[in-house]
Each structure stands twice: as C-alpha cells, then as structure tokens.
Write a structure and sequence with these properties.
5 strands, five-stranded mixed β-sheet, 60% helix, mainly alpha, 16 helices
Length: 350
C-alpha cells in the first residue's frame, strides 16, 4: 500500500481507477477523428489542431500589426496556454503514429507547429528517440544527461541550459549522437537544416520583418530552450546514487501533469517500457509497484515536475518531502536526506 512518506496517510493512484479525469485538449474540432489512426490518440490530434487554429492567425496578426505589444501578447499566450501541453503531446506523437498519413503528420507537426513552438525541424524527435531513449540519461551516451550536475543548484541548471539547449549545443549534440548510432547521414541532414533555419531566421529579422520575426520565431526559440532544459532536468533530477542507470528513478501520481498532459508524470514507467500507450501508463505503474519498491523509486503526488525543481532550487526540501509517497512512513529529516542523496552528481566508471 502507498502512503504519504511523512504523514503516513494512505494514498491511492487516482489515474489507475479514474482514467478519464481531465481534458487534454482545449476545444473540439470537427472531422479530426477521421484523420486519426487510433481513436485513443484523438486528444493528441485535437491538441495539435487547437495549437494551429490559435497560433497561425495570431502570428499573422503580429506581422500585420508590426506591434511589439501584440508580439508580447502572442508569446505570453503561447507559453501560458499552449506550450506545456504541446510538448507533452509532441512526446506522444514521437512514440505513436497519430495520423493515418505520415506525411501529413510530418508537415503539420514537425515542420509547422514545432517550429512555431521554438523547436527547429526534427529537434525533438531526434533528441528524444535517438539520444535520450538510446542513452537513458547516461553521461557520454545521452549528451543531455543530467548525471554529473548538482541537480538542486540553479547555477548548475544555467550551465546545463547553456551547454545543451542553446542552438550550438543541441545541434552539435544531436549530430554527434546520430553519428554514434550509425545515423551519420541523418545527423548531417539535421545539422544542415537546423543551421539553415537559424540563419534564415536571422535574415528575416535583419532584412524582412524585424518585429514579426522577433516575436514569432526568435523569442520562442530562446524561451523554448530554457523551458525544455528545465523540463528535461525536472524529469531527470532524481538519480539513484547506487544504481544511476536504472530506470526506476521517480514517478508522479494524482497530478495535473497526468490529468491534462497525457500522463507525463509516469516517467519511469515510460522508460521501463516505451511501448506503453499513454493511456496505459497508470495501469503499468500499478503492475510495477513491487519493482518500484525493490529498486527504491521515489514517488510524489499532487505536484508537477517543474514545480518540484523550482522548490529544490529554492532550498525548500521540506515542501518536496511533503509530496513524497512511499511504502512506509519516514520522518521529515530522513525524507530530506533521501532526496539530497538522489540529487548529488553521479560519476559512473566504465
């Protein structure tokens, strides 16, 4: 039985018994269900069309108005309303063929929507599928690994962002990773496309339309670099000090991260078996409870990954400990010692 680690109160994983707790999209769009290969992925397709319907006219308005205030409103809307859900949707899109037409999905999502969210063409897919899942957060294999960083240090996070999530960093990392796994041609094509996109964006800003290009393309690229660095650090901030390469790191249950963001809190379960459909992750978590206990996985509830990381940066280990769920009760001091042990830099030899 799961209990709150500090208080000892019993805990139930609501996602496992109430699979339809929340709404993953903003509004319905007619006829989208006809484009979807698996009806379980209809919420993903709806989120994609929600983003397109909102962003494309808004971006045109930024260019037409030539106003920095309209541009600022565009960026605020993008990150307050859409970005979090979109990235979680993109994660599921990378693992599941959502649309019956592969080409439609590639052009609509990878070329248009991802670029409008500040992610140059192919960046997310190559990083997540080739670098991250093959490397598993292992230093020297997954080039965006968090292992050797002090993961409750904001200064370390800034260095992590500058090194891996600015254009020079992610382009070099992805090209190196593709070469490592025998996909040098793909890596070269990506490097050319990403570099070309950055140069084209600079040209549009300098020579074509400074205001529109600044707010629609440049600002999202800059902000999304910080946001994705924060997200990756938040999902891999806890690393088992004795078994750092094990997938049993930590999970989040009973959270908005699951209710509205395609069960993203079940990150360890996803890494244990990435063939789980996003709707199956809560049941997969429950089936793996014994292994989570044996491996010493950390479990949290009623909080999201980004907020966990923020509380750690603020030194509020007590707040983080209050959200811990485990298989036994422990004192707050013990819970905090356990947290800190999972946050120290890890160096794996060999």
């Amino acid at each position: 039985m799961l209990v709150r680690s500090v208080s000892g109160e019993p805990v139930v994983c609501l996602e496992a018994i109430q699979p339809d707790r929340g709404c993953h999209h903003l509004f319905r769009v007619p006829f989208v269900e006809r484009l979807v290969q698996n009806q379980r992925d209809l919420p993903i397709a709806l989120m994609m069309f929600n983003a397109a319907i909102c962003l494309v006219p808004f971006a045109c308005l930024v260019y037409y108005s030539n106003s920095h205030w309209v541009g600022l409103a565009y960026v605020v809307f993008l990150y307050v309303v859409l970005f979090g859900r979109y990235i979680c949707m993109l994660h599921e899109f990378a693992h599941n063929r959502v649309f019956t037409s592969w080409w439609f999905g590639f052009v609509f999502v990878t070329l248009l929507l991802s670029t409008m969210h500040g992610l140059p063409v192919g960046t997310y897919h190559l990083h997540h599928l080739i670098m991250h899942h093959k490397g598993g957060n292992a230093w020297g294999v997954d080039y965006s690994s968090t292992e050797r960083y002090q993961r409750d240090s904001f200064a370390q996070f800034v260095w992590y962002w500058l090194r891996h999530y600015t254009p020079p960093g992610f382009v070099v990392d992805i090209v190196r990773c593709c070469a490592r796994w025998g996909k040098g041609g793909l890596g070269l094509a990506y490097g050319v496309c990403a570099t070309g996109w950055v140069l084209l964006t600079w040209y549009m800003w300098a020579r074509v339309h400074a205001v529109g290009t600044l707010w629609v393309w440049i600002m999202p690229m800059a902000i999304s670099g910080v946001a994705t660095a924060w997200g990756n650090m938040a999902q891999h901030m806890f690393v088992h000090p004795l078994r750092p390469r094990k997938c049993y790191a930590f999970e989040i249950i009973n959270s908005r991260a699951n209710t509205h963001n395609f069960n993203q809190g079940f990150h360890a379960t996803h890494h244990l078996d990435c063939t789980y459909h996003w709707t199956e992750l809560p049941s997969g978590f429950m089936r793996n409870l014994a292994a989570h206990r044996a491996e010493g996985a950390l479990i949290f509830q009623e909080i999201e990954n980004p907020m966990l990381l923020l509380w750690l940066f603020l030194g509020r280990y007590d707040v983080v400990a209050s959200h811990m769920v485990g298989f036994r009760r422990m004192g707050q001091a013990e819970a905090i010692r356990l947290l800190k042990a999972h946050l120290r830099p890890v160096v794996v030899v060999g």
